[in-house]
Amino acid sequence: MTVRRFRYTLTPLSRVSAGRSGAVQNSRPIYHVIPGTVVRGALGTSWWNKIDAAYQPNTSREKQTQAFNELFAKAMRIGPAIPERDGVPGSELRGVSWVRCKYRHSHYGWHDLAAMDIGRTCPIVEPDTGYPCGGSLELGKGWSLPEGNGWIVETTRTALENGAPVKGQLFTRPALSKTIELVGTLTVVGQDENMSPGEQWLLTEKVLSVGGQRSTLGRCRWRADEIKASTPPNGTVIVRLRSDAILVDEFGFATTDLVRAVREAIEKSGGSGTVRPKAWTRHVSVSGWHGVSGLPKPEELAVSAGSTVVVDELDAVAAAALDNGVGIRRVEGFGMIDILPIDEAPKGLDPNAEHPPTPGATTASERAMGESSAIEIQTEHAPPSQVRIAPEPPVPLSPVDQLTKDVGTARAPKMLKGILTQGRQVMRWRDNGFADPIVRTSVVEPTITLPWMRLLSMAEQEAVLDIIGAEPTTLSRHLYDARRCLDALAKEAES
Questions:
Q1: What H or E segment, with its residue span, contains residue 413?
Q2: Cβ atoms 222, 303 nearer than 8 A
Q3: DSSP 3-state assignment of 415?
Q4: What is the pLDDT of residues 70-109, one digit of tens each?
Q5: What is the pLDDT, as a whole number, of residue 241?
Q6: Domain boundaries, the chain
Q7: Rounded to whole angstroms, how far apart are CA atoms 111 and 350?
Q8: What φ, ψ does residue 122 adopt, rounded to 5°?
Q9: How far, in Å, CA of 67 to CA of 70, rounded?
Q10: Whole-number Å distance between alpha carbons of 477 and 423
Q11: pTM recorded for the entire structure
């Protein structure tokens, strides 16, 4: 078996707008990082339909179909296309295990919990009080494109009636600017040391149509070059999804158990490695568009890019197997993986490292308790009556109380009612004898699709799943807290 890796570049000739969902409203969300499945579809369209870029147009249809199936259905896996400008990537893959302080210490950068656990708040000690900062932590959410700098452009148009704009009928279409390039990698697994005609076709320059509104948008020039395949590291490593992964259990049902998927890939390879039980994951729904039929593909539950697990004592055989990805539909670009040495993980909030103070920043103690909470001495030899001592740190809130506080009074009632409903359903399933993995797959994880969950941020959604997926005794306490918070909000509204 021969594995060849290629680096491809898409140079936009017009703006590129690949929609994230089939629903078209006044504004349509788009992919900031183009998934491999979109690029694969553009290549497939060119294979059959482009007169100047088709695959060997003078050969028989049967040979074209055979070569297409060999390349697209078996051998080729296409990674996501990353925006970059002047050779500098514009999008960064921030692991779900990454955190950073939202306030004073954000300039220290990201910290990977997979390499060092620091708790749920910023641990950097404030030099003025000697207490930890305690600021909230911002979570990594996979691929992230910075705002501004012309990466995204928007075009707004209106519906017309008798030549005049229709009131309330404005439509905005965001798109990636044509001043950037989209760069990614693709892998071809073959049985021959020599390149197949299909691989040689990949190396020819051509013009593709990527994304939606292809009559006016999405024209890109394709260029691909073969690169040397790197050897993945072994030992203690971080395994991070580079693209969304669609996972199934032994019965073929959708699951988000990334730990199990990585463990099975290692076992099937014949290699060795110990997967730690903790995983940092986010759940998403993925779909697509079937160009031949002109219909949307069904939505699938997936684990998002940036989701992370840690593997100890990974050997070369298992590392090579993981480098091929996990899950199903990998030929469409799903389930691609980055394997990183754990020593290279960012540790911006390491409490044992030296951190210079931030001039002029507001401390966590001042935010929480006001300036009077810090120790203040009016003179060098002030009497005891003029010395104010910082109070004891406040008692931490329960997970439900903290979540209710973060969500706010406007969204909290619907969320709390949803937690009560789903939590009781979890308890009923457990009382009926269902095992926890089945309860999680059938009740806990589908909660992400409920309407009230769409009102919450990703971090808040993860907190809800942690609450309703807790072990029985803790779940009972969470449901008590949810009812108490809901009653308190109702009394507050009446007053």
A1: helix 412-431
A2: no
A3: helix
A4: 889 888 999 999 999 888 888 889 999 999 888 766 677 8
A5: 95
A6: 2-86+176-227, 235-344, 399-494
A7: 8
A8: -65, 125
A9: 5
A10: 11
A11: 0.68
